[in-house]
Amino acid sequence: MTDAATPMPIWQFSLTTLNAAFWVGLLLLALWAGFRMRWGRLVALTAFLTIDLIAFGGFVRLTDSGLGCPDWPGCYGHFVPLQAAGEINRAIAEQGGTHGPVSHGKAWIEMLHRYLASFIGALILVMFLRALITRARSSGRSLASAAYPVSWRWPALLLVVVIAQGLFGKWTVTLKLMPIVVTVHLLGGMLLFALLIWFWMRERQRAGDSAAMPVPVGAGTRALVWFALVVLLLQIFLGGWVSTNYAVAACPDFPACGGAWVPEMNWSEGFVFQRALGRNADGTFLSIEALRAIHWAHRVGALITTLVVAGAALALLRGYGALRRQALWIKAVLLAQILVGVGTVLLNQPIALATAHNFLAAALLGTLVAAAARLR
Known about the structure:
Layout: H1 17-36, H2 39-62, H3 85-95, H4 104-137, H5 153-174, H6 179-206, H7 219-244, H8 267-270, H9 288-319, H10 324-346, H11 351-372
């Protein structure tokens, strides 16, 4: 078993030829299914599976399953953990029990995450191929009369993002859960989901769906919604930084932190990005003051994000009746996210609540993107 503190080669690929061929065969089945779906259903399904993958990625982190299979993309070179039972048993014996990073359950959790990510990648590849095929068939005809889809640019962008996500998923494992890599991997998943929601809304508009059509709004409202999106993405980064550094327990109470309104913190240590999990750049352990700084930044960011996002929802609700539904969804998801976030701290980070916190962050992003897509 490789020492968890020693990163594997960054371009490591662990599947044997036979197991790789089996994985490719299953992905070809996914491609076949994607080609048979109606276009709108394909886009919606991919977005739905992506938000599920984001939530499941949080579950992987919370159960410490990220190194359940410490190679990539296979599990000790195999397609399923069942084939790697001997290697997993040896790893369990070496680490002194199932409390370590490797166990049979953790191996399955990690591999299920990889299977779902691969399936999403295959569906996005289908989008791109179908767009190219339709574009070629509609050559010389009016694009307005062509069958969906006709544009290849959005599927191409989605394909680039999902490939980058695959690479960061690989580096999450081979670089041994380096916090900045895992955080960027989370942000990449959020970006992919946001792009899919935007694409889905645009396709609904092209199809004439009245519930998705653009609404004329003032420049101030439009700027506020986009500003809320930027602030939310920054807050998601801070939340990811808390999660990937396991800093939730650094402030076990709320709204204070360790009984202090302004706890002792080490900002410079907490926000060094080029370092291993739980370590400073010089190899020493991260201090509790650094973990408090990470946690406290997320709390301050949550307050700012709440004010900005609530302000954007209120502007939509008061000024534009056609956007009432989007505004109410934003407010409802924001409130749920606040309650779940507080509960996660006060109840000592139960896995169900912490996973829901991850899911609701993506849902809030999706509601804001859907609203932004209707602003004209």
